[in-house]
């Protein structure tokens, strides 16, 4: 699976995970953004596609859930959050 992606730099002088998320959401032009850590292990394109397939206008956030746990480390979130 291939996606067109835009690489951006942090907007704030402090470097942290949150400033990276901030910059990503700032530059996002679509209604939702997929957020995952760059070092997230075992991230599979099938999981991302499943999340995309479950996006609906009345849902604010889509978070992966397995029989073991909720995984808030790879959500789709609205651009306006």
Shape: globular
How far apart, in Å, are the first and last alpha carbons?
27 Å
**Which range best describes the helical content: under 10%, 10-25%, 25-40%, 40-55%, 55-70% or over 70%?**
10-25%
Tally of alpha and pi helices = 2
Low-confidence regions: none
With strands numbered from the N-terminus, the spatial order across the biggest sheet is 1-2
> What Rg do the Cα atoms give?
13 Å
Number of E strands: 2
Strand content: 5-15%
Mean pLDDT: 76
Largest sheet: 2 strands, antiparallel
- Please trace the helix and strand order, writing H or E for each element: HEHE
Class of secondary structure makeup: alpha+beta
What does this molecule look like?
With 81 residues, the chain is α+β, with helices and mostly antiparallel strands. It is 25% helix and 7% strand. The protein has a two-stranded antiparallel ribbon with strand order 1-2. The radius of gyration is 13 Å and the shape is globular. The chain starts with 16 loop residues before the first helix and ends with a strand. The mean pLDDT is 76.
Quick structural overview:
Helices cover about 25% and strands about 5% of the residues. With about 80 residues, the chain is an alpha+beta fold. The radius of gyration is 13 Å and the shape is globular.
């Amino acid at each position: 699976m291939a996606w067109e992606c835009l690489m951006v730099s942090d907007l704030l002088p402090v470097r942290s995970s949150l400033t990276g998320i901030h910059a990503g959401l700032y530059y996002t032009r679509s209604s939702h953004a997929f957020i995952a850590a760059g070092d997230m292990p075992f991230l599979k394109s099938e999981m991302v596609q499943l999340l995309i397939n479950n996006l609906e206008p009345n849902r604010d956030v889509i978070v992966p859930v397995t029989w073991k746990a909720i995984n808030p480390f790879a959500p789709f979130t609205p651009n306006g959050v």
